[in-house]
């Protein structure tokens, strides 16, 4: 029997991480699974097939991550992997029926980070739901009846017009052009990076909204047309697949950006502009804040109601009018 893990305990059996690369390791044979954790899980599941002898919360959590790689968004898988790092050291050794509502309450109540504690509970709920659906567990999900949630303050960071101009001036030209397109469309960054050239028509730009699971049609206004033309003018002109692409270098071909790669470019531009505490998500929040009404913001952002729009995306402050 192998030694018990002391690091990377969120990884399933026989998976190891060395540097930035994940490996499947068995009988002294190391099989490269890639650098991306969700992608590594897909490759891992193809090697091990169905897991047997599930007993603990950690076993079921690993099985869920391996099994659901096809129907969960990469961002969700990445978040669940981070949740696993926090949750498994506490609950991983326990059988599912041993985890009680009081245990979950104590964890959520005392764990560091209000928002992430709530996300940890969501991850645990997903594990229990999978366990019931897969026939691994027929008891009561201790996360469901818990009438408690850590208070989360809505993020109110608004990227001002002057700040945006400073970022655009400091960014590489093709990154600056891409930021303008993402701002005008108001889409999530990952969705914007997936837009292909073929999705850009004469009058409408279409992109896939992963979270809502629907295609979004955005009218191409003169401003958006100019922004699109600026993006397409930079980079390869032949064989281009994606609207937003990284430029070719001596060591790397042109091609689509990963979220992490584009975020690095964004952070470099922020640093050069001397702007602190702004995230890529602030581009979308600015888009939702700069349209005139909540209803227009809801339509632009692809929300089904104005509740989330008002709480998280209407961050622009309206000055109070003085007494006449």
Automatic annotation (TrEMBL):
The keyword Plastid appears for this protein: no
Record-linked PROSITE patterns: CB, TYR_RECOMBINASE
Superkingdom assignment: Bacteria
Protein name, UniProt field: Tyrosine-type recombinase/integrase
InterPro entries the record matches: CB, DNA_brk_join_enz, Integrase-like_cat_sf, Integrase_catalytic, Integrase_recombinase_N, Integrase_SAM-like_N, Phage_Integrase
Pfam family, one: Phage_int_SAM_3
Annotated TM spans: none
Domain Tyr recombinase intervals: 154-324
Keywords: DNA integration, DNA recombination, DNA-binding
Every Core-binding (CB) domain range: 55-132
Family: Belongs to the 'phage' integrase family.
């Amino acid at each position: 029997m192998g030694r018990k893990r002391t690091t990377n305990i969120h990884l399933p059996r026989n998976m190891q991480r060395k540097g930035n690369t994940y490996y499947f390791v068995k009988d002294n044979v190391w099989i490269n699974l890639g650098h991306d954790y969700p992608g590594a899980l897909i490759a891992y599941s193809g090697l091990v097939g169905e897991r047997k002898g599930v007993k603990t919360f950690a076993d079921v959590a690993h099985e869920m991550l391996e099994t659901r790689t096809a129907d969960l968004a990469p961002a969700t898988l990445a978040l669940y992997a981070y949740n696993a790092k926090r949750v498994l050291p506490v609950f991983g050794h326990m059988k599912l029926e041993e985890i009680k509502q009081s245990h979950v309450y104590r964890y959520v109540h005392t764990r560091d980070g209000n928002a992430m504690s709530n996300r940890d509970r969501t991850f645990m709920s997903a594990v229990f739901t999978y366990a019931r659906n897969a026939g691994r567990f027929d008891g009561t999900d201790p996360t469901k009846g818990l009438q408690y949630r850590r208070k989360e303050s809505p993020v109110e960071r608004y990227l001002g017009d002057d700040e945006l101009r400073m970022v655009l001036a400091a960014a590489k030209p093709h990154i600056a052009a891409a930021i303008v397109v993402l701002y005008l469309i108001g889409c999530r960054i990952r969705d914007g990076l997936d837009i292909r050239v073929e999705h850009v028509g004469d009058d409408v730009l279409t992109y896939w909204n992963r979270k809502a699971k629907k295609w979004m049609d955005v009218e191409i206004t003169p401003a958006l047309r100019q922004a699109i033309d600026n993006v397409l003018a930079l980079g390869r002109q032949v064989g281009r697949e994606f609207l937003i692409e990284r430029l070719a270098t001596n060591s790397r071909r042109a091609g689509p950006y990963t979220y992490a790669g584009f975020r690095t470019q964004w952070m470099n531009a922020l640093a050069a502009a001397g702007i602190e505490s702004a995230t890529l998500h602030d581009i979308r929040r600015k888009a939702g804040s700069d349209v005139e009404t909540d209803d227009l913001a809801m339509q632009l952002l692809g929300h089904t109601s104005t509740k989330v729009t008002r709480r998280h995306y209407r961050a622009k402050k309206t000055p109070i009018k003085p007494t006449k």
